[in-house]
Design goal:
A hairpin with a 5-residue loop joins strand 1 and strand 2. This protein is of the alpha+beta class. Helix content is 24%, strand content 25%. It is elongated and about 60 Å long.
Length: 130
C-alpha cells in the first residue's frame, strides 16, 4: 500500500492512498477518523484502523471510482514539523573509503531537522556563488 500526505485546496494536509497514478483521499473517505490525518498518524494507529483502510481501498477498486490525479497534487511532508531524524554517519562498510576516511572507531550520530528536508519534486536550494 502506497500512502502520501498532500495539501488540499484549502491548504490542509490529508492522507492519500496511491494506486495507478490515482489518489484516494483517505481523510475524506474515512471521515477524519483516528489514523487518517497523515501518514504518521496512520502508522501510529491500531490494527482496526489499518483493516478499515484496507476495506475502503478494496471498495474503491471494486467501484472503479476515479481518484485525484497524482500528478496534480502538491505533496506535503511525511513527517511532523517538529520531527527529528537520528542519523548514523559512515554507516556502511565502504562509506569511509568512498570519502577517503579511516573507518570510525565508534558510531557517528547526528540529527537532521525536518526543516532541512526537501519535499517530493521540490527544488533543491543551493548556496549563492561568491
Amino acid at each position: 500500500m502506497k500512502l502520501l500526505n498532500f495539501y488540499t485546496g484549502d491548504n490542509e494536509i490529508h492522507l492519500g492512498l496511491v494506486e495507478d497514478e490515482q489518489v484516494l483521499d483517505l481523510a475524506a473517505a474515512l471521515g477524519g477518523r483516528r489514523g487518517t490525518g497523515s501518514v504518521a498518524s496512520w502508522l501510529r494507529a491500531d490494527d482496526a484502523a489499518r483493516r478499515e483502510t484496507e476495506a475502503v481501498r478494496l471498495e474503491w477498486r471494486k467501484a472503479r471510482k476515479q481518484g485525484l490525479p497524482l500528478s496534480t497534487l502538491r505533496h506535503a511532508p511525511l513527517v511532523a514539523r517538529d520531527a527529528r531524524n537520528l542519523c548514523v554517519g559512515l554507516e556502511y562498510h565502504g562509506h569511509p573509503a568512498e570519502n577517503k576516511l579511516a573507518p570510525p572507531e565508534t558510531p557517528i550520530f547526528f540529527s537532521q531537522l525536518k526543516s532541512e528536508g526537501i519535499p517530493p519534486r521540490g527544488p533543491i536550494p543551493t548556496p549563492a556563488a561568491r
